[in-house]
Design goal:
Elements (H helix, E strand, L loop, with lengths): L20 H14 L13 H25 L3 H9 L1 H22 L5 H27 L4 H13 L2 H12 L8 H19 L8 H16 L7 H11 L4
Helix pairs in contact: 1-2, 1-7, 2-3, 2-4, 4-5, 4-10, 5-6, 5-10, 7-8, 8-9
Length: 243
Amino acid sequence: MAVSATGAVPRRPGLWGLGSGVWMWSLVALAAAGFWKTYFSRLGLADAVTHLHAGLMLAWMAMLLVQPWLVRTRRMALHRQVGQLSYGVMPGILVTALWLSQVRMAAAPPEMFGLQAMLLYLGMAASLMLAVFWGLAIRHRRDPALHARYMVATALVMIDPAMARLMLALLPEGIPFNPSWAGYAATFAVLAVLMWCERGAARGRGVFRFVTLVFVVNFVLMHVVPGTQPWQAFARGWGGLGG
């Protein structure tokens, strides 16, 4: 995250910027709870790629927590130095996410192909959204009003994976409930709060409207694309890359 070329610091600590710490810590707690059963409680069973991806994601969340604090305490030089780490961390997240999706697609037994094809779409869509929001944040790195909001959007992408896993861990088996509904409900709720709080903002309030549109489009596509023949053909080819 960056500030303007003049070093100006936003005056009002909105939920998207200097005052984002509370709900960012809430996201950390959600991620810990959501990934506890599938990752944190069984660290010894995970492979190296999973550990690398998890470590990079934790590094990204740490950056989202520390950067607003550095701005608030006016440590701008350190803020810019930490921000430069994103040029390595985010590409690493995207590469390891794609790597993991290929490994898991290749290992899926025939009876699990449909589910894994769905998970492949979810993972690739999340990676694309991360790349888009981060890319826009970097493009607007000298405009704090836009930059900080797009960085917050990268955090919103993490809600669905964590919430979906938490729902799968808590709900009894056999309940006809799509866990991603809970994740997207939480995401849209956060976006609604952000847009309501920003209804009078002089600049940047269109960012969360755009982010909401991206999530809405993906929510629709996730119920359509994975079941199509072209996607399933792609999933088979993707899983066969390592063979």
